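Recall that a protein's primary structure is simply its ordered list of amino acids. Everything else, from secondary elements to tertiary packing, is in principle encoded there. The following example makes that idea concrete.
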Amino acid sequence: MGLQHGEQARDKIQHNLNVYFRRFKNETLLSREQVLERAARYLEVIQKTSPRYAQSMKGVAEASKTTQLEITALNVRYELMYSQFSKIGLKPVTKTDGCTAFAALPTAAKNKHMIMGQNWDWIPEVKGLFLKMRNQQSPDVLCFTEAGVVGGKIGLNSEGLGLLINGIVSSKDDWSRLKKPFHVRCWEALSSRTLSRATGVITDGERSCSANFVLGQQRSEEKGKVLDIESAPGATCQLEPSGGAIAHTNHFSNPSLLGVDQVLDDERISTLHRYERIQRLLDKKVRGSQNLDTRLAQSMLRDHDGNPESICRHANPRFPEDERYETVVSVVMDLYTRTLWATMGHPCEQEYQALKL
């Protein structure tokens, strides 16, 4: 799998390495040598905790004509960047994967299918991929990832399990804790046969950095379950749907429950507005109405209320060019039919394309 990934996406992988090493230097004040040093320590962690993931990284490196440590740095960029962002005083603006995610139970949908949707907002230069993975030992997976990152962060599997994510920064994020990385947990969650197993992947042990995960599963018509897991380094908190739907952006609902301080500066305006807006849309269009379908989900992800810091997010000219984040990919999933609709870039500018597992 790693060899195929590395060969088919070689140019995009090399491009992402250039983007991230420039970002490491400019935004996190980490030299190339420091990044690779930290990547080497994480490689040992991944080899120990998830050897199949490590093997895939090795294949990607070989086929893309890069080094294993460079590919490891891509796969742990979440820990390397976020733990730097959490150090107060390093940079005046906190930067996260600025995402708006929501999910609705079958009871809130026209066709009684579970629908999950997300806009993933990040560095617009980053190149993404959709991977379709056929596994012998675990469910097949259809997911979005960054070129060179083995673990998909948004997607579904053949057991009707779906995953959405949100980046969150806390005061206790620290790369040197050297725990199982974020992208490895995403990969293991998407490789799970059951919702309880995927939940355990997220909640077991400690974490180097904070993150949010929305997990859902539907195996039979009209029956499904969804939950949201806010995870800090030392604790997790599970949130349940309200009125058949749930949503999350880029801040903790109650950080004191998790023993952390929330790190929010200018980003606060965006995450709080996007959260309030998606909740209003769910209240108006989904909760209690039983009329959600994939087209309505797509229209919600095209929403421009509060533009440019809207659900469909555009570059904010108030920020320097390197600090302008946009919607990089938009995804809507039907877990019962194992179908995913996606746009690369702003969903307001193009039609969604269907991908089926």
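The longest helix spans residues 267-285. The radius of gyration is 19 Å.
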